Amino acid sequence: MAGGGDPLRALLRAANALLQQQRYRAALAVIKGFRNGAVYGAKIRAPHALVMTFLFKSGSLREKLKAIAKATYAHSRNLACFVFTYKGLMALQSWLQGKKIPFHSFFAACIGGWLVFGENNPINSQIIMYLLSRILFGLSRLAVEKGYVTQPKQDPFPLVAALIWGIVLWLFEYHRQTLQPSLQSSMTYLYDDSNVWHDLSDFLIYNKRTASK
Question: Which of 1, 20, 48, 89 is the most core-located residue (most Cβ within 10 A)?
Fold first, then answer.
């Protein structure tokens, strides 16, 4: 019985020795990328889904928890599969050409994006819109760094903020259907629901009257 832990310790030593092998590093990085994608996706989506579900969705507690679990699983799975695909294609291209070049990243990400995030659904749509806003900022900064655009004499952020808020509220007021559903829900809560009340209870305490009232 005393030696019952020896096989386990031997297995752990073998696994650790394998992880140190340089020739397997690219393949192992792909596997760990899958792991990190799954964990990060769950960490990002779970709290967001929790808040949005309990704020804006109706239904029983069981239905809400099921919706949260479904959204978290979808985000975690998609991100894990994308990282796995991206890093796998990066390793393959580097092996085929003997070196890593910038086009490899673009090509691998395009393939991964098509395969994993190509379906138009609420989870993928939200992720793509999140990335779109980031790359617009990134490309703007890159254009300045490369000299394609002159460095502004004043910080352009106040103007950008004004235009973004102006456009999004105009869309909400007059072309609401063009906005993503979760954004519509948030703005309805902020700008439409704040126009309606009956007494102090749904003016300060609750957003809307319950059916019993």
Answer: 89
Who contacts 26 (Cβ-Cβ below 8 Å, separation ≥6)?
Answer: 91, 94, 95
How many angstroms separate the CA atoms of 156 and 209, rounded? 43
pLDDT higher than threshold 70 for residue 2: no
Together in a domain, 185 and 111: no
Q: How far apart, in whole angstroms, are the C-alpha atoms of residue 69 and residue 109?
A: 27
pLDDT digit string, tens, across residues 186-201: 899 899 999 988 888 8
The number of beta carbons lying within 10 Å of the beta carbon of residue 85 is 22
Six token digits for residue 109: 């990400």
Q: What is the DSSP string of 11-49?
A: HHHHHHHHHT-GGGHHHHHHHHHHHHHHHHHHHHHHHHH
In sequence order, what DSSP letters do the residues of 114-137 get, joined into one string?
HHHH-S-SHHHHHHHHHHHHHHHH
How remote is the C-alpha of 93 from its chain's centroid?
26
Residue at 76 is within a domain: yes
CA 53 to CA 177: how far, in whole Å? 20
What is this structure's pTM?
0.79
Asked which of 10-19, 69-78, 88-97 is least confident by mean pLDDT, the reply is: 10-19
